[in-house]
Amino acid sequence: MGMKNHEMVPLPLISAIAGIHRGAVARTLSDLCKHKLVAFERTKKFDGYRLTVLGYDFLALKALCSREAVGSVGNQIGVGKESDVFVGGDIELNDLCLKFHRLGRTSFRKIKEKRDYHKKRKSASWLYLSRLAAAKEFAFLKALHDKSFPVPKPIDVCRHVVVMGLIDGKTLCHMDHIEDPAKLYDRLMALIVKLGRHGLIHGDFNEFNLMMLEDERIVMIDFPQMVSMDHPNAEYYFDRDVQCVRNFIKRKFDYESDDYPRFHEVERKTNLDSELEASGFTKQMRLDLNKAYDEGNFLAHCEADDVNEGDEEGSSGDEQDKDRDDEEPPENNDDDDDESDSDEGTIIQEEDEDVDKEELKQTEIESQQQMKALSKSERFNTWLSTTTSQLSDVDLKELDGECPLLLHPREVEREAELRAEREAYIRVREEADKEEEEMMEETGNSGNTEKEKKKSASKAGPKSVTSTGSTIIPSDEVKRRVSLETFRNKEKARLKVKGKQCAVRRGRKENRNVIKEYDGWI
Ligand SMILES: Nc1ncnc2c1ncn2[C@@H]1O[C@H](COP(=O)(O)OP(=O)(O)OP(=O)(O)O)[C@@H](O)[C@H]1O
Q1: What residue ranges in 127-272 does DSSP mark as E strands?
Q2: 405 membership: H or E segment, kind and range
Q3: Which residue in 10, 199, 424, 470 is deepest, having the highest Cβ count within 10 Å?
């Protein structure tokens, strides 16, 4: 499906199509790569997977097997310019002939050189053309078989594979000797005339496309360029077929005759063209295929895509009927659907973006309006000024005693947590203060009252060691204070570390205890 409009199908697209997660799809794809059913390709711009010829064969065979048209595949019995022919069997093991069309196989390499990542159908030209060739062959086989022409029995067609009856004979080019060349000559000419009466010209009536059975009956196995008797060059093609037979019989069996059919002598009875169209090989398919054959360019139909767009749409219905059991949706129809879908997708996306932008704009406008209204509102302004003045009137000093209430609950909690840790430090500090006080009393340096002394001590704090000219502190006292300060600092550090380590140690200890408790019980 991805290859309908991608030369290399990117992984996300495969995942989306398969409805499987990318990881799973990538794994599946790598398995398929190992079996050469898909190939991974990396170019400067894009990475992706492409279906290989073998992969396409497997898809067709899978569908044919599930339809029970094919039960087995055997040896290769023929190689044509644009096909591989295999012997096969149905589910009851009756012989079959499987013809895998490879149209565009040679030109595919050229396409690769001028690779285009995403262009309608050009990318999968070989798939499309091979499929057209198979559809055409099957349609002709069916129509001719129904009119009792000597052709293999048409059994089924899927993608690029035609399933038909196996002819137990030899191609005329391999015949070295025949009993009656005149009889063969007459049979071949009669066949050309019979085709003409049904409005058809083979167009490539040669020894490679004709087989001879044991009883010397002739079977047409290949008619890739069959044209209508209404074709502008019909007479040329008709005469060329006749001349081909004359040359072959003369060259190989040395038989010549002046009795041969002329184009204007052929009386047309029926018109197989219309029946062929009804059988699924549409006018557009014929145009595409003929263009490829006529111009020898397997991309010729792509160049005419734009011109033929309308016709294709008309023809898609027939194709859809034909491929009812086929997993792959009709090319033309789906291409159009895909495009319309993707277009729709973009439109929806664009619409969404527009809606988002509009919404944003609307909200912005609304909020601006609200702001304006609020600033204009007298009620709001009065409330704001009253509240501000009330706040400024509040005497924070009065609230000093209630300070804890102003603290955030988390801060109160932390205070409590830290208190236990700090207790030792506080105790030491209190002791030091006490000693200091006593010492101050003893020295009696200042005439301050006890209250004032306390105040000054608390103001200066234990850290203060400043001395003025009027204050004489003995050197012993200075030493003591310094050592006390050092002790305090050490204690602080020790307490901090102890707090952290304790928790860790406690945890470890608990664990050890738990292990000990359960030792021998496990
Ligand atoms: N129905 C069949 N039964 C038996 N053998 C067949 C049948 N169809 C084709 N073959 C064999 O396969 C060979 C190739 O088939 P065919 O001519 O249809 O292929 P092609 O690609 O159209 O070849 P080309 O274009 O070179 O003529 C034939 O020469 C013939 O030996």
Answers
A1: 154-158, 161-164, 170-171, 200-201, 210-212, 218-220, 227-228
A2: helix 403-406
A3: 199
CATH architecture classification, 53-108+124-166:
2-Layer Sandwich (3.30)
Half-sphere exposure in the Cβ direction for 517 (13 Å, CA): 6
Cα gap 318→276, rounded to integer Å: 11
- Level-2 CATH architecture, domain 1-51: Orthogonal Bundle (1.10)
Chain-centroid distance, C-alpha 275: 41
Q: 51 phi and psi, to 5 degrees?
A: -75, 135
* CATH architecture of residue range(s) 170-268: Orthogonal Bundle (1.10)
pLDDT tens for 343-400 read 333 333 333 344 445 555 665 676 666 666 655 566 666 777 777 777 766 655 555 4
Q: Is 325 a catalytic residue?
A: no
Whether the model clears a pTM of 0.80, i.e. scores above it, the answer is: no
CB burial of residue 205 (10 Å; 0-12, 13-18, 19+): buried
CB 74 within 8 Å of CB 48 = no
User: Looking at ligand 1, which atom is closest to the CA of residue 204?
Assistant: 27
Of 76, 79, 129, 211, best ligand 1 pocket probe by most atoms within 8 Å of the beta carbon: 211
Cβ of residue 10 lying under 6 Å from some atom of ligand 1: no
Query: Tokens standing for 295?
Result: 């111009």
Residues of the chain with CATH 3.30.200.20: 53-108+124-166
Structure-block tokens of residue 255? 């038989």
Both tokens assigned to 135: 């559809």
The alpha carbon of 264 is separated from its chain's Cα centroid by a whole number of angstroms, namely 59
Place of tokens 């209190």: 430
Count CB atoms within 10 A of the CB of residue 501: 10
What is the ipTM, given to two decimal places?
0.95
